[in-house]
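#structure-requests
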Amino acid sequence: MANTHNEISEYFDKFIRSFYEVEKTEFDLEQLEISKSIYKHIFKIKSSLWRFGEKFNRFKRISISDIFQDLIALYLKLELDDNFEIILETKIGKLQPDILVKHKGLNLFILEIKTTIGWNRNSLNGEIQNRISNLSRAFNISEENIVYIFQSPWNVNKAFAEKYWDIENNKPKELPAEYPFNKIRPLLTAEDPFYWKEHKDRKYFEYSNKQIDFFSQNSIVIPLEITIDEIKKAASDI
């Protein structure tokens, strides 16, 4: 049965409530369960937008930057204990980091979340470094505890992607040691089937949950679990 137009906002409310009414869960960080869960969410959301564009004649995709940010925040909230507080979009002066992590009331860690750096390709030539320094001073957080989480390594250029992904062997590399690339952690690859070579005709194709689960096993670039471990270590060092 088709839905009525009145149900649209009800479905949206259910989606929003799912972020703060979710049950606490234990994750196996060694198996990258958090990163794989985020992959599956993003894959399904991208697929849904692909189908929406086709059915609704929408030729420009809706941005999911805020959804990606909130998913990162959600899994931080689920993994970290009650001594931690996860705050989104708080502001000091003109600086407004995407995610601030507090520990026992003190500022501890900052995560800046990017689905893309858009046209600002020069941000890797100084802007990111300057923002890390400015955030460090404003929030009284060590620069070591400020990182960027990119959705993917492919939204900058090939040279950037090759720092994180072995293109020839189609597998992730270790997190680079050099600054600022060690502070940038692209999380996912191949998370949007719309752009896969087998879908050049752009006709919607639906994948099963079993297939998406399989894709997630080999589509994590720099796991979020690395940053989570850093957050826990930073708290233990206080």
